Amino acid sequence: MRFFDTHAHYYDEKFDSDRKAVLAALPARGVERVVCPGCDLASSRQSLTLAEEFSFLYFAAGLHPENLEGAELSDLEQVKALCAHPKCVAVGEIGLDYYWVKTPEERARSRAFFDAQLSLSEELELPAIVHDRDAHRDTVDIVRAHPKARGVFHCCALSAEDAVEVVKLGWHVSFTGNVTFQKARRALEVIAAVPLERIMIETDAPYMAPEPFRGCRCDSGYVYRVAETVAQIKGLPTEAVAETTYQNGLKFFGLEDTSL
């Protein structure tokens, strides 16, 4: 089996001691493609550097809603410049987070950044990688206001009803190791409700390590557990889910299947 981890943060300090060793070992563990999305200008540049070193790794550039302190909308010109790199495959990680972003003023500011970055996604004809935590209605409303944008709700926390709606808009949903947790319910309902052709899998490394590795540092080698869980919900072989989500990732990010 081969896997596409569509969302992993390898610039994170949790990988400082062995980053290159972890990445170099991934192909032997069946992980043939990885996308590393930035959260601010610095991490977007770090992701670019990693993508230049590892042939199977690609990156995204964007400003995360938790990383807007000191940021200006004019900084999106630098995001745009990063997106011109040949290994940049998306604008992201962008979106809304009302768990950490509390005040009305901060939330309004984050909506402005999300809206502007979706406009950038439309302009550049690149997909968007969207973070949505406790802000489902506003997130979906802003997505609906950008009919030319396409993207993925990463670590999908939408209801099944909202997920079906965004899929009808041409968007994807993606799932992490939290689908293996004992209390996982909503994500499993979404997996059951949307077609496999609109599902991608990810780790969100170094976070969200799946069972039975929960509490450990996560890396892309654990993405198979997400595929296994999707397969259980869909009543399909894990091999079929791994290959379909691999192809979904290639198509979504505009990549060729050079491993065939």
Kindly summarize this structure in a few lines.
The protein is of the alpha/beta class. It has helices at residues 19-25, 41-53, 76-83, 104-124, 136-144, 160-168, 186-193, 223-234, 238-253, and strands at 3-5, 31-37, 57-61, 88-97, 128-133, 151-153, 172-175, 199-201. The chain has a single domain (3-253), classed as Metal-dependent hydrolases (TIM Barrel, Alpha-Beta Barrel), CATH 3.20.20.
What would you note in describing this structure?
With 260 residues, this protein is of the alpha/beta class. It has a single domain (3-253), classed as Metal-dependent hydrolases (TIM Barrel, Alpha-Beta Barrel). Helices cover 40% and strands 16% of the residues. It contains nine helices and eight strands. It has helices at residues 19-25, 41-53, 76-83, 104-124, 136-144, 160-168, 186-193, 223-234, 238-253, and strands spanning 3-5, 31-37, 57-61, 88-97, 128-133, 151-153, 172-175, 199-201. It has an eight-stranded parallel sheet with strand order 1-2-3-4-5-6-7-8, with helices on both faces. Helix 3 (76-83) links the parallel strand 3 and strand 4 (88-97). The longest helix is centred in the middle third of the chain and has 21 residues, at 104-124. It is globular and about 45 Å long. The protein starts with a strand and ends in a 7-residue tail after the last helix.
